[in-house]
Design brief:
The strands form two sheets. Strands 1, 2, 3, 4, 5, 9, 10, 11, 12, 14 and 15 form an eleven-stranded mixed beta sheet that branches. Strands 6-7-8-13 form a four-stranded antiparallel beta sheet, with no helix packed on it. It has four helices and 15 strands. 14% of the residues lie in helices and 53% in strands. It has one domain (23-244): Acetoacetate decarboxylase-like, CATH 2.40.400. 33% of the residues are buried. It is globular, with a radius of gyration of 18 Å. It is mainly beta. Strand 7 and strand 8 (141-149) form a beta hairpin.
Length: 248
Amino acid sequence: MKESEVIKQAYAMPLTSPAFPKGPYRFNEREYLVITYRTDAEKLRALVPEPLQIDPQNPIVKYEFMKMPDSTGFGDYTESGQVIPVTFQGRKGGYSHCMFLNDDPPIAGGRELWGFPKKLANPSLKTETDCLVGTLDYGSVRVATASMGYKHDQGDMAAVRASLAAPNFLLKIIPHVDGTPRICELVEYYLEDIDLKWAFTGPSSLTLNSHALAPVGELPVLDILSAAHFKADLTLGLGKVVHDYLAK
């Protein structure tokens, strides 16, 4: 293979059989369960990288479960993790702290393209009679359990739509061949072409357990503030670099 052909063909690894396809990446019938809770301010501050800022008076975490049955190029999978409300240069958005999912292409694509902090695990989101239940297992260990009364009350559609349209931030890290960081960047991206279908709220609970490699329990649940269950079609937009940690 000629050098010119390598350059033309190289957008992901492996070269001749990439782990994920080129976008755009459209998600249909994406279902969310989001539990918003208050946590320890000092522990939150220690995990969010500058120049992102948290509100120390309002240390909030959103624990999310996402069921994605129809995802362009990625297939059918479920994801779970923590998103932290932050501000960057006056813009309010969310910082993805950790993500766990059960499908290899979106793990590879998410990490290589955007810098999503994705790891392999086994999340689940399903309805059990009158209750929506989200769980996250890392191997044989139950790491997180969330529950919400199924569609008890109408949710605030405008608030949910605004949260989906807000900027999102990621810390993208790719090492050099000698193990030092080759890329260390703050990435901003947006969800696009959002079609919010419905939104509900209801009574909820969230339990996080300690785990060495899935440390969601490092941000303890002190007080549950709200719960949201909603479904939307949307496109995952590509990102842009807004801060380079290695720039001189």
